[in-house]
Amino acid sequence: MLHLSSPSFLLVAGMLVGLLHLSRRRRNRLPLPPGPPKLPLLGNLLDMPVSSEWETYWRWSKECNSDIIHLDAAGTSIVVLSSIAATTDLLDKRSTLYSDRPRLPMLNELMGWDFNFVLLYIPRWVPGAGFKRIAHEWRKLSIALVNQPFDETKRQLATGDAPPSFTSSLLTATTPIEHEVIKNAAATTYSAGADTTVAVLGKFMLAMLANPEAQRRAQSEIDVVCGGRLPGFEMFKESDTTMPFVSAIIRELFRWQPTVPFVPHFIETEDEYRGFRIPAQSIVVGNIWAILQDEERYPDAKSFVPDRWLLPSGALNPEMHSDTWQFGFGFRTSCLRGAISCVVVPVDNHCFDPEPPNEFVEGLIRQPVPFKCSIKPRSVEAEMTIRETE
What Gene3D superfamilies does this protein's entry cite (predicted)? Predict the structure, then answer.
């Protein structure tokens, strides 16, 4: 055992310090990933897009001929990954380094989810502090989102007319759970899933309006499995084999118009990748939009083509199956599959306009602008089936 003052210990410690120093010097000499030209101090701040960022990032990646690019927004380091390989290598295989989320002052501090200094103490009436007034209103909405549904469920339990729900089941559990935990868990689950689910179903309606033949094929496939019943979630455990075209529609739906085009990650410490330096405290963005619009992997990528997921035999292509990790195919997607199939089976759709709209509300969650269409039961029997579920 080495003593702290022994020559051997000092030699080993000195070697380790030297290696660490050499490693840091080498890493500091490594170039940053390529990117658009930067201005002094401002970097790329004046070039940063205010909407549809994923499309601009993708264009820059193609101009730089690189699936990893670096941006500097007035001192904020941003690394954008635009391929399956780069995204998997860093955000998946090195997830221990890249699992943090960047700090979002508008959400965390100003809306009441955290506390910090400086901007928090600027009065709302000061010119240029309009963002604080907006955040103040959003904060009230976020508090209402957490409290009001919880309080209403407690009221319904007290009067004996509470329907089954996540919150009511936890409030009546035999093992007591702190109310703050239940309240926050319910609000988080709802806020994380409600908008994304609505956005996906809206895009599904657009896809079916523009592709009536795909809807008819899906209806026929589900009719064979379900008969005259509405689909239940239990029917979708083996749906990849029993309803491959329905599965292909869902995969193509997530690929064609990704609901969350990218999600930012954050790396606290410096890293190295492919001979490039990833600076410490960088925002690292996996550009899902670019990955899913790659013409080499998905020819005619802008079109809705469910058959791209199928073999000539009609079965799902196992080589394409691995792509589903980007689409969040898990429990929530299974729910969407059931919801989508319940829409497909009993109804026919018709758009009031000659062509369904192709405009979207841009943001972290991308969803179609409101549009008009008619939804009618396919038959009297289908109408009766729908009414029986009310």
Answer: Cytochrome P450
The residue type of 291 is I
The number of angstroms, rounded, from the C-alpha of 363 to the middle of its chain's C-alpha atoms is: 11
Q: Rounded distance, CA 200 to CA 17, Å?
A: 53
Q: For residue 142, give every residue at least 6 positions away whose Cβ sits within 8 Å of its Cβ, in sequence order, or none.
A: 111, 112, 113
Tell me the two tokens of residue 11: 């030699």
Candidates 211, 287, 199; CA nearest to 249 is 211
Residues in contact with 340: Cβ distance below 8 Å, sequence separation at least 6, in sequence order:
201, 204, 246, 249, 250, 253
For strands 76-81 and 276-278, give the pairing: unpaired
Question: For residue 39, what are its two tokens?
Answer: 């201005």
Residues across the chain: 390
Q: What angle do CA 373, 375, 376 make, to 5 degrees?
A: 145
Query: What pLDDT digit, counting tens, does each position of 248-266 carry?
Result: 998 898 889 888 888 788 8
Give me the DSSP letters along 289-334.
HHHHT-TTTSSSTTS--GGGGB-TTSSB-HHHHGGGGGGTTTHHHH
* Sign of the Cα pseudo-torsion (236, 240, 242, 248, in order): positive
Residue 78 zone, left/alpha/beta (φ > 0; ψ -120 to 50; rest): beta
d(CA 25, CA 20): 9
How confident is the model over 104-148, as pLDDT tens digits? Answer: 544 444 344 443 333 333 344 434 445 456 666 666 777 787 888
- All residues at 6 or more sequence positions from 341 whose CB lies less than 8 Å from its CB, including other chains: 218, 222, 231, 236, 243, 246
Distances (CA, A) of 196 to 50, 149, 190, 294: 21, 19, 10, 23
Query: Quick one: how far is CA 135 from the chain centroid?
Result: 23
Q: What is the pLDDT of residue 318?
A: 86
- Over residues 289-337, the pLDDT tens digits come to 999 999 988 999 999 999 999 999 999 898 876 555 554 333 334 445 5
Burial of 28-50, coded b for 16+ CB within 10 Å and e otherwise, reads: eeeebbebbebeeeebbeebbee
C-alpha to C-alpha distance for 365 and 177, rounded to whole angstroms: 32
